[in-house]
Amino acid sequence: MIMQKVLGIGNALVDIMTRLDDESFLKKFNLPKGSMQLVDRVEMTKIADASEGLKRKRTSGGSAANTVHGLARLGVETGFIGKVGNDETGDFFYNDLQKNNIKPLLLRSNTETGRALALVSPDSERTFATFLGAAVELSPSDLQEDMFSGFSYLHIEGYLVQNHELLKEIASTAKKHNMKISLDLASFNVVEDNIEFLRPFAENYIDILFANEEEATAFTGKDPLGALDEMAGLCEIAVVKVGKKGSFVKKGDEQYSIDPIRAKPVDTTGAGDAYAAGFIYGLANNFTLEICGKTGSLLAGKVIEGTGAKMDDEKWGEVKQLLKEITTG
To answer: What CATH number is associated with residue 311?
Structure first.
């Protein structure tokens, strides 16, 4: 059986993981510890220059890109649509996708490539200063039919929801290509700000809807199980993630409560993106809904045992061994 291919679309950002010696750096730039702050180019340059001497590591990032990375590591053929600058950082993003066997379907802009500076305190708490740059310039006119051809699934990150025209163009083009569309709601404040657009959009276009507890409540006004029911009434498959309590999955009359795996959490960044990668991997392999949920739970549990939204080779080795156990019962 040929595994189905997955395309991701979202904000193309380069994550710069930066280890702080102490928290005075955060105070200097008025960055509340644990927060995600949007900054302009001038402020980003100041913060980046000031952190020059600290231990840093770059990876391609953004929610949908993280999910696609996870799928590619599991052997799925993938592609990613996003917008980067005509700069060295944009080249880095492009090359990082290629290196990880992800087809780069990137548009270029004269605006700088978006960056997310992840400032890691000594206690592993992360604070983000994010400059979106070229990422937010992705527009309906950038999309070409041939970008979508050959893929069976499209995964959209919720941060794009603020651009309604873009979202409609993405979804209608994907439907022309008979793709299944998944949407990760991304952030409760984005859901609250766009709720009047989101509900009919989900009902008309989305097949698989992912939300964490806060996002599910923002979307429906209900507790996780009530939200699950309502979401499953709008879409083919609904997933509500409830952190250390696991997740709930529903399709029609089929419903599952998925336990989390035992994990030693270090950093929860990227857990939702990894869950989506595991779940979509299951769908692309025609696994049962319960095994899709367990695969999502496995990836989410393993990614939080390290720092950052990506796992190293050793951790992927563990994942693949445990995945065999899940899929063979």
So the answer is: 3.40.1190.20
